Amino acid sequence: MVKPDPVVSSSHVEFHINGQKHSVDASSNVSSQSVLADYIRDVANLKGTKVMCREGGCGACTVSARVIDPVTGIEVIKSINSCLTPVLSCDGWDVSTVESLGNKHEGYHVIQKRIVNFHGTQCGYCTPGMVMNMYSLLGAKKDIQMEDVEKSLDGNICRCTGYRPILDAFKSLATDASNDLKQKCSDIEV
């Protein structure tokens, strides 16, 4: 994680999105009301992060952020509702979007593969946020339990009611997943 320059003024921030450095300040076209979701979509031109409710209730805008905890000083990984996060509050952050995980040219991340193999998408609008929430959970905790998955996804909504296959896909990554659930992971085309 890149640490912010200590002489930088509070109106100037530097952060990374998928490894690419971004510098913004209040005098640019980024205002104090500009949120990370809009910056990701409109400035970084990464359209995988979706925007729906703009109230932090649906999880479509979820990204993963590597940040320094202000209390402990320890680096933590957490999922962020980017629709509620002011860009000017992202100083020193390392943000990951769904585009950083994988694609058809370079291969997909295990989380992306699982959600496909479990048929966990219908319209797919919620999928990037769900995937990034799970990615944050896996980054933050070494041995996740199925209960951790259930608690982690409470801020993500699937309007097509695809929760069961989504939960099964993500629970299959837990250390306490049953063998039956883990066996469902195999790709039928292999």
UniProtKB/TrEMBL annotation:
Alphabetical list of InterPro entries matching this protein: 2Fe-2S-bd, 2Fe-2S-bd_dom_sf, 2Fe-2S_ferredoxin-like_sf, 2Fe-2S_ferredoxin-type, 2Fe2S_fd_BS, Ald_Oxase/xanthine_DH-like, Beta-grasp_dom_sf
Source organism superkingdom: Eukaryota
Record's keyword terms, sorted: 2Fe-2S, Iron, Iron-sulfur, Metal-binding, Oxidoreductase
Key word Metal-binding present: yes
Presence of keyword Membrane: no
Signal peptide region: none
Protein's UniProt name: 2Fe-2S ferredoxin-type domain-containing protein
Organism of provenance: Orchesella dallaii
Lineage, uppermost ranks: Eukaryota, Metazoa, Ecdysozoa, Arthropoda, Hexapoda
Pfam families assigned to the protein according to its UniProt record, in alphabetical order: Fer2, Fer2_2
